[in-house]
Specification:
Elements: H1 2-18, E1 22-26, E2 28-33, E3 41-45, E4 58-61, H2 68-81, E5 85-91, E6 97-104
Parallel strand pairs: 4-6
Antiparallel strand pairs: 1-5, 2-3, 3-4, 5-6
Length: 105
C-alpha cells in the first residue's frame, strides 16, 4: 500500500516540474539591459548552453514581470559574487526564454 501511495503522490507533484521548458545551472557570463518591455534584462551562462529547450542561449525578464526588481537584484549579486545560479524558463510566443524562477547556490 505504501508504494502505491508514493507513486500516486509522485504523479500529483510531477506536473510542477513539467511546466518549465528549460532549467540551466551554472555561473552567469553576461548581463544585457535594454528597453524594459523589449526583453529588457537578459542573462547568458558560461559556455552558452541552450536555456529553454531550443537554440536560444539567453533568458530574459521584462520590467512588467512580477517581482522584477528582486529577480534583477539577485541575478546581479550572483554575477558579482560569481555564485552558481539555476534558472527555470518558459518559451514565449516568439521562442525566447522567459525566466520564471531562479535559485542561487
Amino acid at each position: 500500500m505504501g508504494k502505491i501511495a508514493f507513486i500516486l503522490l509522485m504523479g500529483l507533484f510531477s506536473g510542477a516540474t513539467v511546466a518549465w521548458d528549460g532549467q540551466v545551472y551554472g555561473k552567469l557570463q553576461s548581463i544585457d539591459v535594454t528597453g524594459g518591455s523589449n526583453y529588457g534584462f537578459r542573462v547568458t551562462f558560461e559556455g552558452a548552453p541552450p536555456i529553454c529547450g531550443n537554440a536560444n542561449t539567453w533568458g530574459f525578464l521584462n520590467d512588467t514581470d512580477s517581482n522584477y526588481q528582486t529577480y534583477v537584484s539577485v541575478l546581479l549579486a550572483a554575477k558579482a559574487a560569481k555564485m552558481n545560479v539555476t534558472i527555470f524558463t518558459v518559451r514565449d510566443v516568439n521562442g525566447y526564454c522567459h525566466i520564471g524562477h531562479i535559485s542561487v547556490n
